[in-house]
Amino acid sequence: MIDFELSPKLKATQKMLRGFAEQAMRPQARKYDEEEHEKPWDLITMVHSFMKGGVGGSMGGGGEKKDEGGVKKRRENNLATAVTVEEIFWGDAGIGLAFPGQGLGGAAVQATGTPEQKEQFLARFSGEKPVWGAMAITEPEAGSDTANLRTTAAKDGSEWVLNGEKIFVTSGKSSLESSDGFVVVWATVDAKAGRAGIKPFIVEHGTPGMEITKIEDKLGIRCSDTVSLSFMDCRIPEGNILGSAEVADPKKAGDKGFKGVMATFDATRPLVAAMSLGVGRAALDLLKQVLADEGLEVRYAIAPNRMTAIERDIMDMEANLKAARLLTWRAVWMLDNGDRNSLEASMAKAKAGLAVTLITQKCVELMGPLGYSRSLLLEKWMRDAKINDIFEGTGQIQTLIIARNVLGFGRDKLK
Amino acid sequence: MIDFELSPKLKATQKMLRGFAEQAMRPQARKYDEEEHEKPWDLITMVHSFMKGGVGGSMGGGGEKKDEGGVKKRRENNLATAVTVEEIFWGDAGIGLAFPGQGLGGAAVQATGTPEQKEQFLARFSGEKPVWGAMAITEPEAGSDTANLRTTAAKDGSEWVLNGEKIFVTSGKSSLESSDGFVVVWATVDAKAGRAGIKPFIVEHGTPGMEITKIEDKLGIRCSDTVSLSFMDCRIPEGNILGSAEVADPKKAGDKGFKGVMATFDATRPLVAAMSLGVGRAALDLLKQVLADEGLEVRYAIAPNRMTAIERDIMDMEANLKAARLLTWRAVWMLDNGDRNSLEASMAKAKAGLAVTLITQKCVELMGPLGYSRSLLLEKWMRDAKINDIFEGTGQIQTLIIARNVLGFGRDKLK
Amino acid sequence: MLSFELSEEQAMVKETIAGFATDQIEPVMREMDESGDMSPDLVKTGWELEIIASCVPEEFGGFGEGPSALTGVIAYEELARGDLSTALHICSPTVMAYSVLLEGTDEQKNALLPSACGEEFKAAAAALVEPRYSFCPSMLTASAVRDGDEYLLSGRKCLVPLAAQSDNLLVFATTDPGAGFAGVDAFIVPRGTKDVVIGEREKNMGLKALATYEVTLAGARVPLEAKVGGRGGIDFLNLLSRSRLAIAAMAVGMMRRAAEHSRDYARDRIAFGEPIGSRQAIAFMIAEMFMETDATRMLVWEAAWKCDRGEEFAKDAALAKNYAAEKCMTVCDGAVQVMGGHGYVRDNMPELWFRNARAFSTLEGMAMV
Amino acid sequence: MLSFELSEEQAMVKETIAGFATDQIEPVMREMDESGDMSPDLVKTGWELEIIASCVPEEFGGFGEGPSALTGVIAYEELARGDLSTALHICSPTVMAYSVLLEGTDEQKNALLPSACGEEFKAAAAALVEPRYSFCPSMLTASAVRDGDEYLLSGRKCLVPLAAQSDNLLVFATTDPGAGFAGVDAFIVPRGTKDVVIGEREKNMGLKALATYEVTLAGARVPLEAKVGGRGGIDFLNLLSRSRLAIAAMAVGMMRRAAEHSRDYARDRIAFGEPIGSRQAIAFMIAEMFMETDATRMLVWEAAWKCDRGEEFAKDAALAKNYAAEKCMTVCDGAVQVMGGHGYVRDNMPELWFRNARAFSTLEGMAMV
Questions:
Q1: D194 to chain A nearest CA, in Å?
Q2: pLDDT at A254 over 50
Q3: pLDDT confidence of residue A144
Q4: Half-sphere exposure for A211 (CA within 13 Å, toward CB)
Q5: DSSP state for residue A140 in the 8-state scheme
Q6: Sign of CA dihedral B303, B304, B306, B311
Q7: Residue B398, SS3?
Q8: Which residue from A129, A209, A218, A210 is spatially nearest to A176, judged by alpha carbons?
Q9: pLDDT, tens digit, for every residue of C32-77?
Q10: What pLDDT shows up at residue A66?
Q11: How far apart are CA D303 and CA B9, in angstroms?
């Protein structure tokens, strides 16, 4: 039965988080935008105390125990994460990204690791101290071109030796300096093997040969650290290749490793979409509040061409935001059911990323000088929102994935 | 000196044509939309009487005598054509396309023919009787893929023998059945030579072996005939290959022939843009008239976000239409100066074609039930307008040409 | 708990209608558009889906428990996927039937519902739209003025489907100008009522297979009992919103079909040695067609779900309807564009969708869930 | 007769400023944005372009015959191509200068123009925008009420460039509320006038290198002579429209730079073994950037041409300015998008353009041609 109602449990979480976002996060949002690279430890401690495992939850944790004796077991942990993320990012996107949790690194472990590895590497996130996980895939010479990585992993006795450069590692500093976290590094074990050669490796904090070479200054989400990593003969135990030993062999495993990248993103794209929703809703809520304060009510039900320009803008923005949310919920619902959601995940990410980019820009415009001024948070939300159409695959990459799915074309037929 | 004023001569033409369009064309527009495939002979005779050479003028006639003793001689015949076309198409696009003149066929002769050939083939258009010219390039199996034609031309003694199928030949029936016109057929003399093998041939009306196999029923511009042609061992004199004899030899001439296709379109794309402007302006004029009749004036100068939705729509539509017109005028002005305008021509066509497609759709929406009803011409304009984003290269093809020009990429680098 | 899964019944309805649309409606769509004649066979078969009867309770001749908006939008999407004119023709009696079922007095239900559940398709036209550019359902010019034991109906209506074939018209008019939606009531006007003039069949850009008429009310007199719901009248905004869901669902059906058609063409059509779908410009257009079709459906489903729960859904229905009207036009325009010249000729379907799609921004109250 | 060719003088101005923008402004743009400090060298060099002096007649200290809107928009496009904050800083005194030159009394011209043509850059701030979301120049809340031999100025202004550095402010206020544009007048308010409070320097999303201030008028008194144009006042819509052309021209300059930057990046950046510009999704974005830059420039030129001919151009200026504001945002957003993550970091210029571009929908009366 089609049902759009959240479980009582989720509604409660939502309500609680909304309060936290409004009372704890909002008042500090500007501070951590202006003081770039500062860490909101007070908030981090607070959120960690009531949300072990992090706001990102166990991203991509869906699917596994899909069936129990034939009966499809309903799970909602990915939905819970999406709802959580939206509320937190309604509070503030930068601070939200700075909150502890397994992040993309954990998602990669979830998507590609063996049960033992999940045990070994993910336990820490529910410990007493806040811990971060990160993922390193992008390289200076390859943006979306994940099949073409230059970072290498060579087997040497009982160790892997990593060499290469990674950029745009979200929470890299938090994972490797501020906590006992790790980074999942995608590297090739056989450059000639192309996709088949690409494997995920766990590199623990403080591993010699790994260095943070840069911390980015950004347009928005300034509270979140984005770093560059360099690996020079960085040695890790052979067990740190995710997904059992034979995965290491391109011939045997085929592009299983690379599929892991994709699986990771299938799980996390809807959550990036959920982040977008929070930011977009924040902007729209503010605009509507300002209008309400002036006694202006939006007449949604009249003919659109009889509306004022601002009424129609708001109607359009609300429809787009709502559509994006429903597409997002559909994608995580599929994940919770263990269904393949590659197409739906990209639809959610593409729709939400673009929608909130435009919504926040429109809200700033409609608010005139107040929108452009740093005395309100609106201008910050416009800066923060833009990242959603970029990271974890730009809107163009998402659309490409949708097109390939729809047309049934592979990379060869639709570049 | 930058100047946007039309010469007194052009202003007079404009004024005269506006009257003709309003009083002679508008009253018959609906009739010739409903009675598809009927020819508006009364209007044709009328327009031919005061406009020998046709409303299309000498399309692409620019450039030749660019310099006379170093002094750049100002010409405005392409501008005149653009202005003429806009007014005529403001009256009605379907009837406008049905008016006599050299059309694309003549444009091809202008762009690729020798002086003798221009003499020989174009004289007829200023004769007593109305005559049409057409161009056949599209084939059932190739839309925009003009480099990949299957129609062949084989030399046999002192004749060329054409074989193949052509579709979407505008005014094909008018040229070949209703008058002593001709069609310029693009065919390959050497399939292996690709672009280099493609040449333009003049086929006169009534040439044996050429047959009209179909007349299209269309969404709009129903007064204009669009036909399919079949060529079965169709024999034409060797002199009917446009551009001196050695053009025939791919090795010697290179892709000169194909360049001719492009040159033809460089000259005619801005005129398609001008057609768009007429239709778009017609729709906008009607909408504004309806508002004015209700005493509503558009407050262009106030802050856009204080406008009503309909005011802002009108402002946007006017800006887009005006921008399209100015881009069109720039493209024809360059043509008149004999400057290469491939980039600017595509900008004009792309902008105008899309702008009026959207403008007419918006006007129908804003007019509600009146817009959707056939009791007004507005719905017809929406159907007519759509062709402008399609024929003589879709908006996508135009954008591709722009991109290649801007990026400096050839077909190989940017498919 | 969140779910996007159809119920078994909904899945069955969807499958049945999908087959009907593909096997029977689409093949004759073009012919009906050119001739302007709706196929009686389609209407017969469509009626046998018992869309209305399955919603009307037994006591009034049906076998249901009132209309389910969710099941309705699922059904209408499939119908319109076949052809919009056909979908509107078959669904046109729902406005009268559901308005009376949901808001009418027992007398009105007894009088009108049994025939609406009969074996034979029975036309019953609803008149809401008015012929002016600035039409808005919250500002009707058609008025109903009480005069003793009668109401005096005045005003002009247009886009009234099957008006000439209907025994009764359902006329929406304002009894309280300036009261907005709250001031609108519905009146049952029998065929042949004096001073009700049904004009010539209308000619529109699209919907050519659907017979619509202009209706003029020149001070026509109807008894007080003609007012739906009697004294209390109707919750017009509720009925209007249900009709918006019906229309939005049909837009989704058309979008889906246009997207599928573009996908297939882009896969098969070869240019420059490759399928045109291997060009990003085309491929991205098609990706967005599918994305927006799904996005629109989600908006429609969520609003319908609220409706069935008896929650306030007028805003959600308006958002869904306006979004659907805009996106459907964009998608169908794209379906023409993807085919280029072939999309502009009447041998192919896109030009027909292009003409029909523009109707959605104007359609109000022509079908209901 | 139609022509798109610059005059020799315009071509020279364009070339000079283009060099200044490329060689001197752009290299320090990022540094100024981060520090918030405008480079005095840039201001000095910019002033030496004699933008104002070249428009002011000799009798008032210049060597021109009044401002040419066309030459102005050509010059401002090139300036803003280097950096918007710098362009606005250098051009900010034009509002006072041209308002007085075009509408002022001889006394006012003699008092203010010579210094505006001096060797040294002299700040002169204009205060038009007001700090509320619904700001519209036709509905100012700042008011000027006549009280004997004085005007009482009340209201709040924001986005006033260089207010703290100016000897005189030009304050726009309404003398006839409800009269729209016709009710607006301009007043010359000397520094230190009682009850004129210049607030802290503002913090905005962009324009970080441009010092702007909020100005509060708490019933400040100025003599009747302070009113520009004396008794007759000013043609405010004409001045506003000239300022809209100035701002639209700057938007064109930014659009052009962002388009060029995206083109170069898309040509050089390799992904999947090819330049990213060889993908239609990226290539089409860039094609549209260039097309819309040209389209916007055409709108600006045509309106400026009308202005110089003394024709009614308020509508044309509004169309151009609003079109420019929207397209500039789209183009600069695209410039970020084309670079992906690299466009989001402050090592590269797109994020700066992205922040500055959004200003255009709000900017009014900050520069003039």
A1: 26
A2: yes
A3: 62
A4: 9
A5: T
A6: positive
A7: helix
A8: A210
A9: 999 999 999 999 999 999 999 999 999 999 999 999 999 999 999 9
A10: 45
A11: 23
Whether residue A245 is predicted with pLDDT greater than 80 in this model: the reply is no
D123 and D115 Cβ atoms separated by less than 8 Å: no
Closest-CA distance of chain C to residue A18, Å: 20
Please judge whether D337 and A389 are an interchain contact, meaning their C-beta atoms are less than 8 angstroms apart: yes
Q: How far is CA C224 from the centre of its chain?
A: 28
Q: What are phi and psi of D215, to 5 degrees?
A: -125, 125
List subunits contacting chain B, requiring 3 or more Cβ pairs under 8 Å. A, C, D
Among residues B249, B243, B238, B245, the alpha carbon closest in space to that of B263 is found at B243
What pLDDT does residue B144 have?
A: 62
- Exposed e or buried b per residue across D129-139, where buried means at least 16 C-beta atoms within 10 angstroms of its C-beta: bbbbbbbbbbb
Which residues pair with residue A166 across a beta bridge?
A: A229
A347/C267 CB distance under 8 A: no
What are the phi and psi torsion angles at C127 (to 5°)? -115, 105
Provide the pairing of β-strand C125-127 with C168-174: parallel
Task: Specify the length of chain B in residues.
Answer: 415
pTM of the model: 0.96
CA–CA dist D325, D285 (Å, integer): 18
ipTM: 0.96
Nearest C-alpha in D relative to C279: D280
CB C261 within 8 A of CB C343: no
Q: In whole angstroms, what is the distance from residue A230 CA to residue A224 CA?
A: 20
How many residues are recorded in chain C? 369
Secondary element (H or E) of residue B288: helix B256-293
The secondary structure of D310-340, three-state, reads CCCCHHHHHHHHHHHHHHHHHHHHHHHHHHC
- Mean pLDDT in residue range A43-55: 84
Cα gap A269→A261, rounded to integer Å: 12
pLDDT band at residue B163 under the 50/70/90 scheme: very high
The DSSP element (H or E) to which B326 belongs, if any, is: helix B309-336
The b/e string for C236-270 (b: 16+ C-beta within 10 A; e otherwise) is: bbbbbbbbbbbbbbbbbbbbbbbbbbbbebbbebe
C-contacting residues in A 5-34 (Cβ below 8 Å): 5-7
d(CA B354, CA B359): 8
> What is D113-158 written as a DSSP string?
HHHHTSSS----EEE---SSTT--TTS---EEEEETTEEEEEEEEE
Per-residue model confidence as pLDDT tens digits over C139-170 = 999 999 999 999 999 999 999 999 999 999 99
Using CA atoms, how far residue C269 sits from B407, C260, C281, C282, in Å, is 28, 14, 15, 12
Q: Are D140 and D130 in contact (CB under 8 A)?
A: yes
Strand partners, D152: D145, D221
**Residue carrying the six token digits 């255009």:** D360
State how far the alpha carbon of C356 is from the alpha carbons of B384, C46, C49, C160, in Å: 15, 20, 24, 16
C-alpha B118/C-alpha A227 separation (Å) is: 68
C-alpha B95: how far from chain center: 13
Instruction: At B160, list the tokens.
Output: 């060329």
Cα distances from D31 to residues A384, D25, D27, D34, D80, in angstroms, run 22, 11, 8, 5, 16
Q: Write out the two tokens for A293.
A: 């304060």
Residue A304's Cα: distance from chain center in Å? Answer: 36
Of B68-82, C64-78, C309-323, which range is least confident?
A: B68-82
Helices marked H in C156-203? none
Structure tokens belonging to residue A227: 């770093």
Chain D: nearest CA to A159, how far in angstroms? 31
At a CB cut-off of 8 Å and minimum separation 6, what does C305 contact?
A2, A3, A4, C69, C70
Chains in contact with chain C (at least 3 beta-carbon pairs closer than 8 A): A, B, D
CA distance C68 to C308: 6
Distance CA D297, CA D299 (A): 5
